[in-house]
């Protein structure tokens, strides 16, 4: 997918990540699709579609498509001339969902190494209860961190969390006011609800519970269950204030009300978590948009609606001149 450029003829099979039947200004129906393989995704359109054709497949199905690529408003899209549903038994699913480029076994080992360095006995017992839960670990090391935004690939959640844990472990000595054990635990827990909020066996999507409840509430519920197990492990009740601080880190880590946090960060560890989380997400997003932009001739990416800006890639090598079209 990421090898496609303007004007390429395409005759390939793809996973349908999203499907919408729309009408143009004249009222004619067309299909707007998001097609994906393990290297990335592309928007696609099939003109003069019908409701009957749209009902023959759903997101999560596979299509053999024919068409041609074109750049429209700075973004690469695929104009389709033919689509055909592919028998899923003839498909290798791992060829169609993006994977982390990092070694998952090494990431998992690093996760365990950092978490098992926690010295607080209650927090250490808590993280151990998660780490000995084989089903949780399987999901945590497979789940993406999102559907379309940062780390939207298998093991993306693991990669995101290990990166933040590593950053925190390197800088915590600069901020002696921070509780290292609490910060590391909160980082590990902040997105645990995503293992069930998202579905990621085929197309990446939200589960019913994810749509209705969301990963913040789901994460707090998972924390409460493991706290009960950890109390059995230590033979002591889990400290109430410690639990309260962990819950607060989960529900406040988005940082602002407009980004979904029911509470703003109100502790040192919560505000540290928010900015570390945001730092990794933003750098990952900027890097991806710059790297994957199909317009190699331009010094700038197209206007990014989710970021509210264009991104500077560097002076275009083809002519040595900056791109002059600065309007979104």
TrEMBL record:
SMART domains named among the record's database cross-references: HDc
Biological process according to GO: rRNA 3'-end processing
CDD domains: HDc, YhaM_OBF_like
Keywords: Hydrolase
Pfam families in the cross-refs: HD, tRNA_anti-codon
GO MF assignments: hydrolase activity; nucleic acid binding
Superkingdom of the organism of origin: Bacteria
Limits of the HD/PDEase domain: 153-291
InterPro entries to which the protein is assigned, alphabetical: HD/PDEase_dom (IPR003607), HD_domain (IPR006674), HDIG_dom (IPR006675), NA-bd_OB-fold (IPR012340), NA-bd_OB_tRNA (IPR004365), YhaM_exoribonuc/phosphodiest (IPR050798)
PANTHER family (alphabetical): 3'-5' EXORIBONUCLEASE YHAM (PTHR37294:SF1)
Designated name of the protein: Putative domain HDIG-containing protein
Organism: Singulisphaera acidiphila (strain ATCC BAA-1392 / DSM 18658 / VKM B-2454 / MOB10)
